[in-house]
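Design a sequence for this backbone.
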């Protein structure tokens, strides 16, 4: 029996505004994670381990930051002569060309290309979550269900449920779907992995376009998923593993805290399911005499002479003698000078914290934009924001 023909569409074109300064100059999927990875590495590695080799990535905002990382798809075995990785930028030239205004709008705009591929199943995934999942298992369940869409679901905290699409389920059948409701009926949320029956879904989008207009299609949860649910054509695939949406600064910071545990929620070096990325060339980390490093992730190319506790250091980070970094995430090239103190903060690429400066403290996470400079002896209070340094 032939394997089903599967197409994965990775949604990587959103503005990512909830990540604030971290997405001012980069696409959300290109945001670094756990030192040496990028957020997009998670869905692409899932594709590789699921044995799926046809992957399309939609891009729109800051596409260069993502294209540089993806290159030809080699780290994820997607550099194929036929098929493999393909980028889908906005385009003009047909009646469906133009700027994408939502995920359902994207499917409608790319409908001709998707129909031409003639897949048995279309897997649509976001790229702002940390998890591992065999997409082929979900596809197999979907193809045997008679559903038009299978939604992968997970449980979320009650006080956070209004950020997600929330479902009510009877067995495996989805009986109700509400998109980011003010008062969620349950804590069962879709985790932004959907398996669609392509032809029926695209036909439905054409009907919704006739009714609403192309801009009215908006996101998958606006009209498409509710319509499929009302007609009894939606199924749930319960996911019990670790999953965390990192689309906000507090969630991004907390996800790094999760991975500092003695037994992290996902083993990124698991020989059976390693997380792949486009590697760079970095020397070994240098821990200098007198340095203290505790409960931290320290990437290659870093130099630590001060004190680092409960933090994640990306390649090229420098923490000078007498400096202290606590419960923080430092992205590539950040430099903390002697006597400075950084607490509960995220420092973007190339940030420089001057001597004896203080950044953050107990309270909300502090965020410093790319290449910003914190003057010597100055203080950025907990929860503060310092935008990217403007270049001359």
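Sequence:
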């Amino acid at each position: 029996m032939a394997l089903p023909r599967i197409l994965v569409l990775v949604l990587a074109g959103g503005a990512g505004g909830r990540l604030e300064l971290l997405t001012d100059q980069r696409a959300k999927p290109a945001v670094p994670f756990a030192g040496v990875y990028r957020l997009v590495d998670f869905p692409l590695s899932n594709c590789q381990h699921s044995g799926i080799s046809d992957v399309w990535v939609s891009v729109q905002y800051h596409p260069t930051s993502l294209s540089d990382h993806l290159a030809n798809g080699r780290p994820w075995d997607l550099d194929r002569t036929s098929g493999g990785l393909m980028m889908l930028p906005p385009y003009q030239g047909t009646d469906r060309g133009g700027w994408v205004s939502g995920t359902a709008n994207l499917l409608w705009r790319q409908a001709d290309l998707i129909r031409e591929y003639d897949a048995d199943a279309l897997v649509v995934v976001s790229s702002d979550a940390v998890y591992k999942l065999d997409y082929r298992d979900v596809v197999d369940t979907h193809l045997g269900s008679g559903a038009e869409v299978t939604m992968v679901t997970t449980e979320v905290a009650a006080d956070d449920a209004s950020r997600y699409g929330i479902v009510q389920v009877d067995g495996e059948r989805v009986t109700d779907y509400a998109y980011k409701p003010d008062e969620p009926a349950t804590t069962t949320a879709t985790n932004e992995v959907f398996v669609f029956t392509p032809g029926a879904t695209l036909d439905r989008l054409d009907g919704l376009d006739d009714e609403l207009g192309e801009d009215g299609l908006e996101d998958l949860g606006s009209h498409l998923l509710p319509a499929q649910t009302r007609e009894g054509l939606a199924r749930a695939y319960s996911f019990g593993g670790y999953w965390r949406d990192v689309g906000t600064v507090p969630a991004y910071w907390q996800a790094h805290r999760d991975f500092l545990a003695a037994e992290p929620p996902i083993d990124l070096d698991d020989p059976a399911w390693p997380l792949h990325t486009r590697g760079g060339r970095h020397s070994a980390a240098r821990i200098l005499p007198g340095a203290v490093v505790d409960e931290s992730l320290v990437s290659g190319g870093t130099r630590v002479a001060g004190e680092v506790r409960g933090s994640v250091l990306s390649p090229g980070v420098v923490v000078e003698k007498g400096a202290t970094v606590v419960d923080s995430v430092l992205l590539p090239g950040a430099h903390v000078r002697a006597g400075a103190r950084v607490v509960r903060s995220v420092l973007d690429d190339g940030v420089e914290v001057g001597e004896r400066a203080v950044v953050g403290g107990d309270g909300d996470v502090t965020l410093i934009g790319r290449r910003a400079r914190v003057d010597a002896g100055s203080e950025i209070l907990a929860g503060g924001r310092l935008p990217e340094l403007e270049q001359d």
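The chain has a mean pLDDT of 93.
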